[in-house]
Amino acid sequence: MDVSERIAALEEVPTESTLLFRVTNDEGETWEAILVASDGADGSSSDCDDGPHDGCGDDRSAERTGGTRLSCWLNYCQHLTHIKIDKGSGAPMRDGELVCANHGAYFDSGSGECTHGPCEGAYLTALEITVDGGDVYLTDDEYSFVGEGPIEDDGDLTSTSNVKI
Ligand code: FES
Q1: Does 154 map to a domain?
Q2: Would residue 152 count as lying in a domain?
Q3: How many domains does the chain have?
């Protein structure tokens, strides 16, 4: 495993929030991504059995360890794609779903599907991760790990919540 792609220790990944980090692509663009752990103890193999799509059709996002399912997504809502779900202090979550505070879209934290809200049926963009030796690594062909935390030059001008959650 490439140590430069280590995102965090497995135990650091929150279950009721998100771990925010930065990635870069081949064009040198920097983006934000989030890691989230969800309870996968029901034994289901995946929520992504309905064919390929941008979110999890290839099941890149999910990595199971014990009863926990880890998922990794680009940190951008599918309603307005410049809006960040995690504003820098962890994304809000309700009943295992990520919540975009701007207009109240709910995303299944395991499949990335928007289950409720203005972009219902759309999927978050998945990044491939791998758990090895108690650590989580980014193993995505398109993105490389940069570091923990947000992009400092925040272009999200609408970061104020419009909904009560
Ligand atoms: S920007 Fe996320 S729900 Fe509207």
Answers
A1: no
A2: no
A3: 1
| Residue 25 near residue 93, CB atoms below 8 Å | no
Mutate which of 34, 75, 77 for ligand 1? The one with the most ligand atoms within 8 Å of its CB, which is 77
Q: What is the CATH number of the domain that holds 83?
A: 2.102.10.10
Which protein residues are within 6 Å of ligand 1, measured from CB? 77, 79-80, 83, 100, 102-103, 105, 117-118
Residue 135: inside a domain, yes or no? yes
Indicate which atom in ligand 1 lies nearest the CA of residue 158. Answer: 1
Count of other CB atoms within 10 angstroms of residue 120: 13
User: Residue 161: inside a domain, yes or no?
Assistant: no
Per-residue pLDDT of the chain (165 residues; tens, 9 = 90+): 899 999 999 999 998 999 999 999 999 999 999 999 987 644 333 444 443 344 444 456 677 777 788 999 999 999 999 999 999 999 999 998 999 999 999 999 999 999 999 999 999 999 999 999 899 999 999 999 999 999 986 555 444 556 655
Q: Which domain holds residue 122?
A: 3-146
